[in-house]
Amino acid sequence: MRNNQRRMQAIVESIRDLSPTIREFTLALPEAPLPYRPGSHLSVIVQINGRPEPRFYSLVGSPMGDTYRIAVKLAPDSRGGSRYMWSLQVGGRLDISEPNNHFELDFNAPEYLLIAGGIGITPIFGMAQALSRRNAPVQMLYGSRTAEEHVYRSELEASLGQRIDFIADDAGQKMDLQDAISGLGPNAQVYVCGPIPLLDAVRRTWMESGRPPANLRFETFGNSGQYAAEKFWVKVPRHDLEFEVPVGVTLLDALNQAGVETLYDCKRGECGLCVINVVSVDGTVDHRDVFFSAAQKTQNKRICACVSRVVGGGVVLDSDYRPDAI
What we know:
The chain is α/β, with parallel strands linked by helices. The chain folds into three domains: 7-100, Translation factors (Elongation Factor Tu (Ef-tu), domain 3); 112-219, 3-Layer(aba) Sandwich (Rossmann fold), CATH 3.40.50.80; 232-318, Beta-grasp domain (Ubiquitin-like (UB roll)). The chain is 18% helix and 34% strand. The chain has seven helices and 17 strands. The radius of gyration is 20 Å and the shape is globular. The two termini are 19 Å apart.
């Protein structure tokens, strides 16, 4: 994995519960913080079963003084990162990177539609504020399971007023993506962050509209799928291996623990470096990546080991790893 960024020790200055499942952390830095643009994130080292592992959290809102803000959702099928973050107390220390951005906001578009689902609001929030300050033509859709999960609502309403729609699943509300996208001008840009089902729905609607793929930009938090996580079995005949992947452990980690060294980088289902060939599937592959197209996912020929799983059975894989290769 690449790790060329400068790292530093941050102190948890304050903690605020935004909802029953979303907690905000304000991090004080030992030196003046680097500026960042909307869509930026931090790499944070968390401890998982005594092992240090990186997790990636979007920087919330605009830069504020000498601190950074991140928000973390306590996920029921967490691999351990959110549980570790929620265990932190004020005064705790975190190893963090400098800001990085793979979800850059283009300020030159004639029109914008922002779409956030759940904790996907974290990068979108700063975009909404920045575009509002520039008086840019912007609309926003913000979906969540319940109304109380609409965090930062008052700040968003102050920035966007009537230009934002709040949609709550428990109220029987649904995003009308076709209506929102069809009402955009031909060169409008859409920015979306949220769970995989939302991203897939937006991408499908966007492609059906015939709009330029480059004008749809998205980011995922890399741990959501179409199905709840469950244990599944894995066979790798080339290496005479069979093992189980429990809930809370990724296929990537299980392969490496079994001695099948697998390359990776993002651990978010975005880069495709950890892709491994699928021989056969017993059950359903829950593709949680944004690397493969919808058509490629239906073929089930390859799987992103860092995020994707299997439900209702298991999978037979063929790894390119050769322990005797020079």
